[in-house]
Amino acid sequence: MKTSQTKSDFKQKALHWANQFEVCCFLDSNQYIDTYSAYDFIIAAGVQKELQHSSKNAFEALKVFYEKDKQWMFG
Fold it and tell me: 18-71: per-residue pLDDT in tens?
């Protein structure tokens, strides 16, 4: 992006776009920079797979859910 204003405009438009989905997640670094920073911000929109579980054994269910695909999980 050329300027912070352009980046800010893009973030607003991207967030507006993501808002059309029932589920969306917007993670923003708030310009924090460190050795491991790969993205200034990232958006997840929509649901491909979903884990719904009661509190009993929830972490074990999450582990099994993750092991199936080993993909990014937002939520």
Answer: 999 999 999 998 888 888 888 889 999 999 888 888 778 889 988 998 999 888
Both structure tokens of 10: 């893009």
Residue spans of the domains in the chain: they are: 4-69
Grouping H, G, I as helix, E, B as strand and the rest as coil, residue 13 is helix
DSSP three-state, residue 60: helix
* Residue recorded with tokens 């607003």: 12
- What's the predicted TM-score (pTM) here? 0.67
Burial 10-36 (b: 16+ CB within 10 A, else e): ebeebeeebeeeeebeeeeeeeeeeee
Is residue 63 within 8 Å of residue 43, measured between CB atoms? no
